[in-house]
Amino acid sequence: MKGNIKFIAFILLLIIGMFLVEQSFTKEFTWNATFSKSDKQPFGCFVFDDVLSSSWKGNYSVSDKTFYQMDNDLLSRPRSILVVSDYAFMDSVQLKSVISLLRKGNKIMFVSSTFSPLLVDTLRIVAHNSFISDADMKLMIHQKPQLKSLLLCDSTLSHKIYKFNAQLCEDYFSGVDSYEPKLEKKSEDKRKPTWISKLPSTVLARNKEKFPVAFSKKIGKGELFMVSTPLIFTNYGMLDKKNAGYIFSLLSPMKGLPLVRYESNVTNNGEKESPLRYFLSQPPLRWSIYFALFTLVLFMCFTAKRRQRVIPVINPPVNTTLDFVKLIGTLFYQKKDHLGLLRKKRIYFAQILKRETSIDIDEEALTMELCQRLSNKTGIEAEKIYRTLRDLELLEYDMPIDEKTLKDYIDRMNEIITNSYK
User: Fold this and answer.
1) Which residue intervals of 282-361 are DSSP H helices?
2) What is the CATH number of the domain that holds 264?
3) Residue 217, SS3?
4) What is the pLDDT of residue 269?
5) Alpha-carbon distance 157 to 249, whole Å?
6) Of the residues 44, 51, 268, 311, which has the maximum number of CB atoms within 10 A of its CB?
């Protein structure tokens, strides 16, 4: 009893000590862009979703329903759909569902740094994206940031210039309208216009080089929005008081409808998220899991020592039939009754052939047709099988057989038996 109390006290002191050590560590931010509703890091969407839930008029929610599921939801009314990710993946089925939703009066906004080639080709635009490393992200905090201007230019939005860290707004579009600068074309764009690309585009925001970073197209009764600054639509952008208005300005055309942010339950590496993955991503929860496993292992070790019992040795069951066959064979061999032993072997040989090849050599007459069937089953030449079966028929007569002849007969029968198993 005293030993158990000491053990429990030791574990509690160990947990308290590790908790104090953990709290004394300087907490560092992780700059991985997850866009997850449960991620409180700079590039998660916990704060983003929380603010919109309390401020969006008309209901705000986060859903993992695909565009196909939304399009086939007969009870749903028109809504605004927001997609924030680092790669807006889309196949032909999803593209058809997106177009169908737009025609029904839904508004869809894609906020991403990289867009699916299928979507880009349909709009006949070019999406320019740049890679941002974690080291570049940390420079935004540890060094004086380089600012880059974004201008809201649509008449329905307030004409205002917002200045962001350059790492957050390096991506842009080209081929949207005629007011943007002309890029040097390495090769002529031979893509034929689609009916969607022929629809007029409204540029909502431009960068300082006059390239669009956000634009919209009215398709059917709905409207499609394309935005190239996903890192701004995160906790980092929402907590930036000087620039948070940029987010609400771009979302303002979607007001009046319920807003649904589509969040796929898949991480950036294509792996499906799980509750355990979230626990492991939070240091306090991760340490609690480690301590629980460590305590469980210690408990199992102490319990195993006290309750361990001697495990009796259980011998495998003896194959008495095999022992009997060996005994009979030994008796025949010791008595030099080679003919009797060979007749027993011949009976066993006929039974195996009947079981494995469905050919009964005791009931059928010995012919070349019979031997050919056995040859097809075993792969041995028919003439060789015929000679073996013909010689075995002589066993019906009492004739002296020496040990060499006995071995030759048995080897020939074993060869046929072995090939019948294949």
Assistant:
1) 283-307, 320-334, 338-357
2) 3.40.50
3) strand
4) 38
5) 6
6) 44
Classify residue 44: in a domain, yes or no: yes
Same domain membership, residue 52 and residue 141: yes
Pick the closest to residue 262 from 222, 239, 233 (CA basis): 233
Looking at the structure, do residues 116 and 205 belong to the same domain, yes or no? yes
Judge contact between 81 and 109, C-beta under 8 A.
Answer: yes
Measure the CA–CA gap between 250 and 30, rounded to whole angstroms. Answer: 27
Q: Is the pTM value of this prediction over 0.70?
A: no
Is the pLDDT reported for residue 409 higher than 90? no
- Within 8 A by CB and 6+ apart from 344, the residues are 328, 332
SS3 for 255?
coil
| Structure confidence by residue, pLDDT tens digits, 315-326 | 777 766 666 667
Structure-token pair, residue 133: 């490393």
| Structural domain count, the chain | 2
pLDDT digit string (tens) for 245-301? 899 889 999 988 999 999 864 344 334 455 566 666 667 777 777 888 888 887 777
Tell me, yes or no, whether 174 lies in a domain.
yes
Under 8 Å between Cβ of 94 and 66: yes
Q: Residue 356 is part of which domain span?
A: 334-420
User: Domain boundary residue among 225, 250, 273?
Assistant: 273
Residue owning tokens 């309208």: 177
Q: Are residues 269 and 348 in the same domain?
A: no
Q: Are 124 and 192 in contact (CB under 8 A)?
A: no
Flag whether 198 is in a domain: yes
Token code pair at residue 31: 């700059």
Q: Helices 320-334 & 338-357, crossing angle to 10 degrees?
A: 140
> Which SS3 state, helix, strand or coil, does residue 262 take?
strand
Q: 396-412 as b/e, with b when 16 or more CB fall inside 10 Å?
A: eeeeebeeeebeebeeb
Point out which residues pair with 148 in neighbouring strands: 164
Q: 84: exposed, middle or buried (C-beta count within 10 Å: 0-12, 13-18, 19+)?
A: buried
Residues 248, 118 within the same domain: yes
User: Which amino acid is located at 372 in the chain?
Assistant: Q
Domain boundary among 273, 289, 304: 273
343 in the same domain as 241: no
Q: Is 344 exposed, middle or buried (0-12, 13-18, 19+ CB in 10 A)?
A: middle
Q: Is 19 among the domain residues?
A: no
